[in-house]
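Need a sequence for this fold. Nothing fancy.
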């Protein structure tokens, strides 16, 4: 149900437009979001969002989006960031509402993102605040993220984990935040009365500074230390803040001593975090450190298959799934965003999703992800992996010790480069294209029957795609 004053403002056409203070805050928030999530993701989803009306009585601000799909996606992906950003802006906004922009039938309320008071009186279980898709059941695992997922499951389980804290590191958009939310949901399912506190490092700093200004540091500290599960996202952003780091150190020391569980994420391992107190690094590295590597081709395919299974119409054919998995390699979030974009445009326009449509819609994203892999690069990598001289890739020797690595390299050259079969043959010592075909079929067969060959190919693919 809409707020009555807000409904009246819309219907009468007298809604108060955002003043200059809100516009300045929104400009700063947009700049911060663009920096945090990357230009491509920002331009695709958040750049079109516009400021709408502001009601000073209820301190409610409208944000306008183009479609239902966009509103749902923005709320699911960026609701927490919007909430934190408007809270930190301190411009009198207590509630943010996402609307579809006005059309012939008037505005439609889609989602409410509440901006809570800066310092809550006490932490509460947070499972209800986490998106359903941020659950372990929706986290697709592969070689690149299996350790991190297994550690997260252990941290969320009923039994006391054998380690704490858990430090998960990996690049942007690889699933770190997903695991944090999944831990919180699973933990709250079996311990609903245990306080759970989730925040980004940036939010930690903002709340700590606000508490000091309001002379409420004791309440802030009490809230932190009451948590039985503390989850801190993007700890690298706490770097360089002396008093904040000191408080964070005391907090994790107290929580560890009390048996609480702590999970921290960052974009790099502890030893590479610059300007962070050595005592904090020692504490963070004293538990379990688990990395999330860039998703390999098999994992990207599995992620897209999982999304296709619940996407509904229009159907996404196998050729498009394969094109996405091979073209969008930077991170999982961007891969999912590309898939969502195709489905959204298909739903909005009624156009069937085929390979030509996908290639046209995603041309910019594909160009941004392109990294030209050369046959020479593949030859050198395979030679190093199998500990042979790179010249053997072009030699006439047929001993298995050099023939098998050469076949693997031909297989990868066919899979990873745009070179034709005759071109690949010529680069491998003037061989005929039929030799390349034989090599590709041989390695395809061995990958199914020989786990060692399959492991070699997977390792080489990860290095090339990374």
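Here you go.
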């Amino acid at each position: 149900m809409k707020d009555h004053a807000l409904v009246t403002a819309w219907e009468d056409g007298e809604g108060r437009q955002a003043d200059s203070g809100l516009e300045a805050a929104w400009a700063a928030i947009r700049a911060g979001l663009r920096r945090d999530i990357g230009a491509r993701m920002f331009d695709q989803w958040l750049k079109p969002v516009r400021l709408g009306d502001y009601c000073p009585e209820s301190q409610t601000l409208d944000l306008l989006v183009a479609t239902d799909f966009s509103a749902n996606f923005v709320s699911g992906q960026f609701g927490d960031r919007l909430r934190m950003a408007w809270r930190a802006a301190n411009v009198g906004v207590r509630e943010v509402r996402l609307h579809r922009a006005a059309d012939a039938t008037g505005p439609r309320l889609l989602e409410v993102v509440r901006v809570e008071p800066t310092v809550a009186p006490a932490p509460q279980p947070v499972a209800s605040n986490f998106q359903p898709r941020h659950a372990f059941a929706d986290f697709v695992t592969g070689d690149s993220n299996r350790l991190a997922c297994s550690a997260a499951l252990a941290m969320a389980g009923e039994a006391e984990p054998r380690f704490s804290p858990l430090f998960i590191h990996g690049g942007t958009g690889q699933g770190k935040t997903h695991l944090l939310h999944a831990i919180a949901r699973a933990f709250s399912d079996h311990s609903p009365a245990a306080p759970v506190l989730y925040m980004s490092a940036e939010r930690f700093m903002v709340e700590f500074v606000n508490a000091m200004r309001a002379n409420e540091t004791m309440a802030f500290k009490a809230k932190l230390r009451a948590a039985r599960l503390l989850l801190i996202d993007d700890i690298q952003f706490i770097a360089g803040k002396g008093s904040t780091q000191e408080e964070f150190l005391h907090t994790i020391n107290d929580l560890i001593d009390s048996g609480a569980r702590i999970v921290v994420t960052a974009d790099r391992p502890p030893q590479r975090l610059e300007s962070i107190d050595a005592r904090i690094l020692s504490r963070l590295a004293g538990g379990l450190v688990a990395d999330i590597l860039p998703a390999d081709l098999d994992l990207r395919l599995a992620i897209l298959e999982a999304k296709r299974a619940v996407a509904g119409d229009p159907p996404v054919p196998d050729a498009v799934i394969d094109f996405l998995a091979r073209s969008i390699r930077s991170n999982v979030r961007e891969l999912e965003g590309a898939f969502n974009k195709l489905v959204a445009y298909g739903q909005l326009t009624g156009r069937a999703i085929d390979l030509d449509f996908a290639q046209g819609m995603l041309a910019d994203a594909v160009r941004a992800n392109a990294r030209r892999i050369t046959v020479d690069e593949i030859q050198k990598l395979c030679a190093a992996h199998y500990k042979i001289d790179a010249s053997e890739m072009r030699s006439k020797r047929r001993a298995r010790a050099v023939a098998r690595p050469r076949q693997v390299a031909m297989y990868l050259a066919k899979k990873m480069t745009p070179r034709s079969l005759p071109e690949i043959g010529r680069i491998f010592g003037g061989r005929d294209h039929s030799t390349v075909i034989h090599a590709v079929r041989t390695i395809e067969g061995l990958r199914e029957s020989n786990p060692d060959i399959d492991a070699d190919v997977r390792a080489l693919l990860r290095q090339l795609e990374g």
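For context: The radius of gyration is 26 Å.
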